[in-house]
Design goal:
By secondary structure, this protein is α+β, with helices and mostly antiparallel strands. It has two domains: 48 residues; 152 residues, no CATH class. Helix content is 33%, strand content 27%. The chain has a five-stranded antiparallel beta sheet with strand order 2-3-9-5-6. The chain has a four-stranded antiparallel beta sheet with strand order 1-4-8-7, with no helix packed on it. A hairpin with a 5-residue loop joins strand 5 and strand 6. Helix 1 runs antiparallel to helix 4. It starts with a helix and ends with a helix.
Length: 209
C-alpha cells in the first residue's frame, strides 16, 4: 500500500513536470482555413516556438515603422489600404501574436485569396499578416477583408505565417497566451516544487514507519 501511494505521488510529480511544455507553443493547430478552389488541399501545422520567436523578432523593426507612421515602407498594399489600416491602430497600441502556423495549399495557383478564421479578430482591428518567404525574408500583408472572427488575405506563396494584431492597451486575446507569458509556467513550477516536497516528506515517513 505504501509503495503504491509513493508511486502514485511520484507519477503526479512527473506529470506536473510536463505541464510547462504545453505552453511552449502559442500557435493553434486547428485554424480553419477556407479557399474557394475545392481542388486545393489545405495543410496546417503548428509553427514551432523557435520559428515563431524568430518571425516576431524580425517583425519588430517593421512594427516600429508602422507605429511611427511609415507603414508604406512595410506593406505591399495600395495607399488606401494602408490609410484604412493606419486609421484602425489604437493609441499606445500593444502587439499581440494571435496565430502562427505553417500553411501549405497543395494544388493552389497563386495569387490566391485565403480566408483564415481567427476568433480574436474584430471588424475594426488593426491586423496584419507576416509571411516568411522561401528565401527567408518576411513580407507584411494587410488583409483584403477584416471581419468579426476572420480575415481574407491574398498570398503569392506559402510557408510560415503569423497573424499580428495592434491592440488597445489592456486588450488581450481571449484564447491564446501572449508571447513571453510565463504565468502558466510559473504556476506549474510552483505546483511541481510543492509536489516534490510532499513526495520527499512522505518517503521519509514511510522509511521511519
Amino acid at each position: 500500500m505504501r509503495k503504491n501511494l509513493l508511486a502514485l505521488l511520484l507519477s503526479c510529480v512527473l506529470l506536473l513536470a510536463l505541464v510547462p511544455a504545453a505552453y511552449a507553443y502559442e500557435s493553434p493547430t486547428d485554424a480553419s482555413i477556407v479557399v474557394e478552389d475545392s481542388a486545393v488541399t489545405v495543410t496546417v501545422e503548428r509553427l514551432d516556438a523557435a520559428t515563431t520567436t524568430q518571425m516576431q523578432t524580425a517583425a519588430d523593426p517593421a512594427i516600429a515603422d508602422i507605429l511611427a507612421g511609415n507603414a508604406a515602407s512595410v506593406f505591399t498594399a495600395d495607399e488606401q489600404q494602408i490609410a484604412d489600416f493606419m486609421a484602425r491602430i489604437p493609441e499606445n497600441a500593444t502587439v499581440e501574436t494571435l496565430m502562427s502556423m505553417n500553411l501549405s495549399l497543395a494544388g493552389a495557383t497563386f495569387p490566391l485569396e485565403v480566408t483564415i478564421n481567427v476568433s480574436d479578430v474584430k471588424a475594426n482591428d488593426a491586423v496584419f499578416v507576416a509571411h516568411q518567404k522561401e528565401d527567408g525574408t518576411v513580407e507584411y500583408l494587410i488583409p483584403k477583408t477584416t471581419a468579426d472572427g476572420r480575415i481574407v488575405v491574398e498570398f503569392t506563396s506559402l510557408s510560415p505565417v503569423m497573424i499580428v494584431k495592434l491592440a488597445a492597451p489592456g486588450q488581450e486575446a481571449a484564447s491564446l497566451p501572449k508571447t513571453g507569458d510565463t504565468a502558466p509556467i510559473a504556476y506549474a513550477l510552483a505546483a511541481l516544487v510543492a509536489s516534490a516536497a510532499a513526495a520527499v516528506v512522505l518517503a521519509k515517513r514511510i522509511r521511519k514507519a
